[in-house]
Design goal:
alpha+beta, 7-stranded mixed sheet
């Protein structure tokens, strides 16, 4: 498996207004074209946070632990529809209540994303798709102890610190 570098993404300004389009490959090649993504942090009622493990074939941060759900907003798709689609695709969850918690610009050496961040509390079944290399619930203390150890994606580490979970 590998990412489709020809997939078309919307290019946006920092308010989320579409200003153009570009391919996944163009967005991830260091161009810093701002493109929108959704993140969902899935907590259980014990207060543990579910993280996904990125598979080795991913073009960005392979093999690292990451936000439960993270995905690109497709061209012509709303934030809410993208969130529901990505959560169902990645974790098989269809019945959840997302709570918006932040939106911000994330920049790495390869890309620049406008992140729309949500959280939910969920105790039902989680069925990670073949897009992931599995996942598990972590206590917040386990996460804090492992920050900056190269285990998590920089995006997750930065967001975890930003949101003060």
């Amino acid at each position: 498996m590998k990412d489709n570098n020809e997939e078309m993404f919307p290019i946006v300004d920092e308010e989320g207004n579409i200003t153009g389009t570009a391919t996944r490959g163009e967005c991830h090649n260091g161009s810093k074209l701002l493109h929108p993504v959704v993140h969902l942090h899935v907590f259980n009622t014990k207060g543990e946070l579910y993280l996904q493990k990125r598979p080795a074939w991913k073009d960005i941060q392979p093999g690292k632990w990451d936000t439960a759900v993270g995905g690109h907003i497709d061209l012509g798709e709303s934030v809410e529809i993208a969130l529901k689609r990505e959560v169902e695709e990645e974790l098989g969850i269809i019945d959840f209540t997302p709570e918006p918690i932040a939106h911000y610009v994330f920049e790495s050496d390869r890309e620049k994303e406008l992140v729309f961040c949500f959280r939910t509390t969920y105790d039902g079944p989680i069925c990670p798709s073949e897009e992931l290399d599995g996942g598990k619930f972590w206590t917040l203390d386990e996460i804090r102890k492992n920050l900056d150890q190269g285990i998590f994606t920089p995006n997750f580490s930065n967001e975890f610190k930003r949101l003060n979970f």
